[in-house]
Amino acid sequence: QENSFEQFIINYCNEKLQQIFIELTLKEEQEEYIREGIEWTHIEYFNNAIICDLIENNQTGILAMLDEECLRPGTVTDETFLEKLNQVCATHQHFESRMSKCSRFLNDTSLPHSCFRIQHYAGKVMYQVEGFVDKNNDLLYRDLSQAMWKANHSLIKALFPEGNPAKINLKRPPTAGSQFKASVATLMKNLQTKNPNYIRCIKPNEKKAAHVFNEALVGHQVRYLGLLENVRVRRAGYAFRQAYEPCLERYKMLCKQTWPHWRGPARAGVEVLLNGLRIPEEEFSFGRSKIFIRNPRTLFKLEDLRKQRLEDLATLIEKIYRGWKCRTRFLLMKRCQIVIASWYRRYA
Question: Which SMART domains match (predicted)?
């Protein structure tokens, strides 16, 4: 019910993770259809980049305003920090405060004067400004770190490397918000170089009890985990896509014209293959470099046909081998019989 600086940082990280989820699934999915020249009806979805910018913008972001308050001379309090936010973020559509002189919230009794509210991707969250400045400073005085570094215990000495006199840095240590922002940026950069798989966990109830299903709680999680947009894009789009070359290589055995070798472009081979299998035209589309299959059932059908064909080919190979083996043995026995018969007639 009460959220402070720690929850604000956690929710900021969640927003960044949601942003990369949107970019790597919803946005990239639809951009791929455009690149491949596939006829496509654009699906609208909410991009939370505007919320991330509200928090992390280098000039007008909440973290930047907090750092500015922590570093400026004079009297600095949580109230002065909130006043600065009310000046800079007053017109932002996802920022709410009763002190921002915004008529929308002047009479909002659910929003105390010492709080501000952010409309996150997962819903509105109210934050108490008390403690924001102190928690963001999070400074360990230099003489304390030097005293810890001089300790005889090796573990304590290792925990305070900044106390080493040879590494004294006269610059002001970075704030907690700046450190976390840099860590999140490093995490996002790392994730963008990978091919992540998303596992969405849904809690059926708050009591961690078996056989208890809270429909309202589950519905809330489904909406705010971005699952609805993802399902809409997937249902409107194509469940499977693959480059023509590997697709032809995998399924060419299903058509006499493409098996065992196809002489020609891979796209033409895939067209001959799908037409030969009598796959309905509405089930697939040809992109510039990939084949797109709309329904998973079509893919399952191809896999079942391939599995059956592999069994048939294995049976054919076994049949030919057994025939060759029996014929080889027969020819050997025939030659032996001729030799034995000739020698018998010679001495008879």
Answer: MYSc
